Amino acid sequence: MNAEMEFWDWFVGHEAEVFNLDPKQEAQRERVFDELAAQLNKVHRELSFELGPNNARREFVISASGMREAFPSVISLVAAAPTLPRWQITAFRPRRNPVNVVEYKGKRIDPKNVQFTLFSDGKTAGVHLFIAGYTEGDTDMKTIGYLLLDEALGEYDVESRLGLIAMHSPNTRTDGNGTRSLNCPSNSTN
């Protein structure tokens, strides 16, 4: 049996527990999340997940954690998914509208407080993100920046269609031609 089938066998065996997970029960949530992450990591060490709200159908997002080398594993794992009536299985973090607030390791950034400029090198688009509280070398804020881009554009497009992604504090000057908020309606594309 391959790693994808082993994962789905595990998931089907724990489907009710994952589906009915109560986010307020911290110990249970952490245990289930750790088990789920360990099972995904058997497929590829960079795979991660997101669970949507507990509705009649719950979304299960399988992410490459922004690592392009993990894309084939996401694609093959989603392709191998069995039919699960209560689940919508999604490959890669999807574009969200509106862009959600991102919380990571005790830091919280509202997309209304993030500005950006776009630029082109003649082949691909690039982006400068200006994030309140960002300092050079702050890997947690850099992770938040990438998660915000995933929210705005979708993980697949961020990794496959953007070139340079640079993050700065809000007072940094670039050669860009103006900035906009990440959740500015004129930036929404489908």
Summarize the structure.
By secondary structure, the protein is α/β, with parallel strands linked by helices. The chain has two domains: 89 residues, no CATH class; 86 residues, no CATH class. It contains five helices and nine strands; from the N terminus they run ααββαβββββααββ.
Write up this protein:
The chain is an alpha/beta fold and 190 residues long. It has two domains: 3-91, no CATH class; 102-187, no CATH class. 35% of the residues lie in helices and 23% in strands. The protein is built from five helices and nine strands, in the order H-H-E-E-H-E-E-E-E-E-H-H-E-E. It has helices at residues 3-19, 26-43, 71-79, 139-153, 155-161; strands spanning 48-51, 58-63, 87-91, 102-104, 107-109, 114-120, 125-131, 162-168, 180-181. The strands form three sheets. Strands 8-7-6-9 form a four-stranded mixed β-sheet. Strands 1-2-3 form a three-stranded mixed β-sheet, covered by helices on one side. Strand 6 (114-120) and strand 7 (125-131) form a beta hairpin. Helix 1 packs antiparallel against helix 2 and helix 4 crosses helix 5 (155-161). The longest helix is centred in the first third of the chain and has 18 residues, at 26-43. Residues 185-190 have low confidence and may be disordered.
